[in-house]
Amino acid sequence: MTLEINASAAVEKATGGISKKGLSAGSVGLVGAVIIGISCIAPAYTLTGALGPTVAEVGLQLPAIFVAGFIPMLLVALGYRELNKAMPDSGTSFTWATRAFGPWIGWMAGWGLIAATVVVLSNLAGIAVDFFYLMLSQIFGNSAEIAGLAGNPLINVGTCLLFILIATWISYRDMQTTQKVQYWLVGFQLIVLVGFGIMAFVHIVNGSAFDPTPVSLSWFNPFAVTSFSAFAAGLSLSIFIFWGWDVTLTMSEETKGSRSTPGRAATLTVIIVMVLYLFVAIAAVSFAGVGGVGVGLGNPEIQGNVFFALAGPALGPFAVLMSIAVLSSSAASLQSTFVSPARTLLAMGHYGALPPAYAKVSPRFFTPGYATIASAVVAAGFYTIMRFVSEDVLWDTITTLGMMICFYYGLTAFACVWYFRRQWFATVRNAFFTFVFPLIGGIILSVLFCTTLVDSMDPNYGSGSEIFGLGLVFVLGMAILLIGVVIMIVQSRVRPAFFRGETLSLAAPRYGEPEE
């Protein structure tokens, strides 16, 4: 039976069709997929890293920007769902863009996903380090010396590498292990975030909030943002906080009901996270305000990690719970985020776009072992370098990540539009879900990518770090894309079959007749 399956996959691969890769089929259900999706987004980690920079750009319009970021994410998620129905494949953006536009654009879409996840893996580990030492300091009587250990570059990097090692070991194991770990970590962080929001409002009612700011409908008005550049920068950061839901699609070959469950899980994940974000964001702004002193969200000294500053004033003796929540959020997402790049690398190796070593699947755990380890090594190296280049590594990598997200999400949205071009107007549903929704989402993300790319050339953009007079965010973004182009050109010479469309070809099946 195994020989028959392998022979069938080899035939499909040789003729340019979709084929299985040896992953553990049917090991993830709808609830498990949603939990892993929320874990990958990592609400506690994401908010502590993004609230401050977003407030710095848009002020009180924070809720409006969150809603604005939610819209393109939802539209793109709907496009992803349609593509997954037609072509459930662990390569997601890489596979779909290749089948819609050809191998060159498909390769860069895959690279964008891999680059984004490597950037965020390093960021996740960095946040985990900060809150690990904060938690220890709170446990041992708020010792400033212990909390300050996170600022020591050698200790910081060493601890970060240890976290990455642990996360890699868990990710290397089967998906059942991943799910069991995530249920506990995700559940705990959600309870603490809701508790934080409730306590913030209690302080407001009692008059003990730091800077009580009455909730206003104007907070939801995106036109109140001072400039389009500020709006675009805030929106790019807002999109970052929703990023990660597409992990549910990369698990499609391991999910029960591979054509429907991943798309449904992605939509549910985005909606659940949106409701949580609005609640916590409104609570934080109402409690602390957007002033530039103390724990005001406009204070540059706390913007890189706001829960580090807000936990004590809002939660009092229970502040350590927030530290544990962000630490568990970072650790959970660090582990679950390995799912996406590992499976994309697996698909790229499987279809001949990368060396065949990336196509190796662990015979014991049925996971992409080699690709998982490769992702960990690159993420560890990236963080180590960035930690010594920029003191504000978290802020700069978050902004760079926003650019990478816009790049590959936008390409995938356009891939949905083009792939289904022959069926746009077959039904009203087709017109919206395969044409209008993904097209609007793709256009929004493309505009954001271009705007951020231009604005980030200014050395004052992001944390203010620069290289040769150019903003570090711009340098990082361009370097990542150019490295991808160089590797792609090298692979086209070494592995020409993929780039000739022999291992994964263009296709546009009739709607309702998905490929097997």
Sequence-ordered SSE layout with sheet pairings:
Layout: H1 2-14, H2 30-41, H3 43-58, H4 62-86, H5 93-101, H6 103-139, H7 144-147, H8 153-172, H9 175-206, H10 228-242, H11 247-250, H12 261-288, H13 306-315, H14 319-337, H15 339-350, H16 369-389, H17 393-419, H18 428-455, E1 466-467, E2 470-471, H19 472-494, H20 496-499
Antiparallel strand pairs: 1-2
Helix pairs in contact: 2-9, 2-12, 2-14, 3-10, 3-14, 4-10, 4-12, 4-17, 4-18, 5-6, 5-17, 6-8, 6-14, 6-15, 6-16, 6-17, 6-19, 8-14, 8-16, 9-12, 9-14, 10-17, 10-18, 13-14, 15-16, 17-18, 17-19, 18-19
Structure characterization notes:
The protein is mainly α. The chain has one domain (37-494): Amino acid/polyamine transporter I (Up-down Bundle), CATH 1.20.1740. Helix content is 70%, strand content 1%. It contains 20 helices and two strands. The chain has helices at residues 2-14, 30-41, 43-58, 62-86, 93-101, 103-139, 144-147, 153-172, 175-206, 228-242, 247-250, 261-288, 306-315, 319-337, 339-350, 369-389, 393-419, 428-455, 472-494, 496-499; strands at residues 466-467, 470-471. The chain has a two-stranded antiparallel sheet. The longest helix has 37 residues, at 103-139. It is globular, with a radius of gyration of 22 Å. Mean pLDDT is 84; it is low at 1-12 and 511-516. GO terms for molecular function: transmembrane transporter activity. InterPro entries: AA/rel_permease1 (IPR002293), APC_superfamily (IPR050367). Keywords: Cell membrane, Membrane, Transmembrane, Transmembrane helix. The chain crosses the membrane at residues 28-48, 60-80, 101-134, 154-172, 184-205, 225-245, 265-287, 307-327, 365-386, 398-420, 432-455, 467-490. This is APC family permease.
